[in-house]
TrEMBL record:
It comes from the Bacteria. Coiled coil: none annotated. The lineage of its organism: Bacteria, Bacillati, Actinomycetota, Actinomycetes, Pseudonocardiales. The keyword Glycosyltransferase does not apply. This is Ig-like domain-containing protein. Signal peptide: none annotated. Residues 239-371 form the L,D-TPase catalytic domain. Pathway: Cell wall biogenesis; peptidoglycan biosynthesis. Keywords: Acyltransferase, Cell shape, Cell wall biogenesis/degradation, Peptidoglycan synthesis, Transferase.
Amino acid sequence: MIRIAGLGLVAVLLAACSGQTETGGTAQAVGAAGPTGTATVPGVPAATVAFEGGDQLSPKDPIVVRASGGTLQAVTVTNPQTGNAVKGALSPDKTTWTSNDRLRYGATYQAVATAVNPAGAASEQRGEVRTIKPSGVATASLFQPSSGDFGVGLVLGLKFDHDITDKATVEKSFKVTSSPAQDGGWYWVGKREVHYRPKEYWKAGSTVKLETTTFGMPIGGGVYGGQDVSATYKVHDSWIAKADGKTHQMKAFHNGQLVKTAPISMGKTVDTPPRGPTPTFNGTHTVLSKVDHTIMDSCSYGVCEGDPGYYKAPENWDVRISNDGEYLHENLKTVGVQGSDNVSNGCLNMNTENAKWFFDNFNAGDVVEVTNSGGPQLSINNGHGDWAISWSAWQAGSALRG
């Protein structure tokens, strides 16, 4: 409350959550100061304040404090649950204060505003604004890191921690831009995961940006969108390897030019006891990761020590191309049949020189196209099998195409 130079108290006007206020009559105001220091101007109504938003404000929307019959002198908005003050700014005419901070779900914000009428009388007014409390918050994580350098086979993606029932609304909140511009689209892998790729491989040198604006949106079943994510990627030179299971050769192309040919041995397609066929997956793979040395253990896919066909072997120059354990790597035991026969457990075997060359030149997002392997098609959830899906089928996987 503010005392007016010995003439009493200016009315304190309390605002309800609906934003309505009560004027409490006519406020006395300080006029021009004379020799005695005080003058009054009767009949001037007190300025009033409305706190907009009420009980169902989306945390995506701002808290707005609006003065009528005067201007705002000061506004403080606080989340008492956290003790954090909410940042905001006054309009040029000082009649409106608008928050510019990110709000929280299920929070009650306490607002205190001081408004001044044309005669200079100030009144402090209080109110509350509550944000919606959803039944669940679906937060997305990026399929790739939030930045980085990738090959032309780069696949973007988001994984949510809740099922998405209104996929169309969510998909509309995504934005992908590329420079230069390229035609692309989204494909829903399941209830929680969605991928993006262009119709053709990305153009070398492209910059690709992903942004979401799902926060604060109702996305079905009482669930709202969680914090937004963004990412920026740079596409490096085009590196594409073409591995043919019939010729047992792998050719590497740099920006469209053939720069390397290497004999290989793919996964075996015939029953060779003690293990059955283990053909390499057909289709377009991309490099997921690489390591110069690792121990490959068949127990990782269920063939453990004591089982027929168990192995545990050190391997060098390992370039991973699927989640199922397919690698390009050195294998000295198969050098004698590299270029003539497929005998591996699914990997693409090479000699030391060729394996080291591919390890040095191929990086995340670079492409390995496998044909004539005798194996099934690489699936979308087995690494980045996205490129194995035809463009028409990919477009049909969008929630906006149904």
